[in-house]
Amino acid sequence: MTPSLFSHAPEPEPAKSQDPIADVVQTCTVPRETEDAFRGFHEYPHLWWPEEFTTFGEGTHMEFEGGALVETSEDEESATRAVVRDIRPGELLDLEWNPGTGSTTVSIVFTAEGSGTAVTVTHTGFDAARDAAAQREEAESLWRNVLQRYGRFMGAR
């Protein structure tokens, strides 16, 4: 028997929702006032940024230049890591992070804590990135290592 011309198609399966990818939050405390902590992060990354977290590896010069976080190789090749969206010296550095797999957001907040400064990196927006879970895992390792190196550079123990 042939089904009726007026029969309805089966109801579509409801879309399966994915759990959101958690933000990465890393904090370190440095024995400096907020202005100095900010300057150490913003003006001197070439002195402390871990080479293993650069595009070009050994000899890479990392700096904030022209509203962006830029890596420059020994051969003068360059790669933009992030674009600065907001900057408030001594308080906040807000970045659009783009390692080539989709944009995410990184906020670095500087907060007075006792005689030092708590520096908190919050990396968000992994749901929109390609291979979101892997991006989040890489970001967690990146910021943990970046803050360890930055903290030592600024005199944290």
TrEMBL record:
Origin superkingdom: Bacteria
Domain Activator of Hsp90 ATPase homologue 1/2-like C-terminal: residue ranges: 56-140
Region (Disordered): 1-20
Similarity comment: Belongs to the AHA1 family.
Name assigned to this protein: SRPBCC domain-containing protein
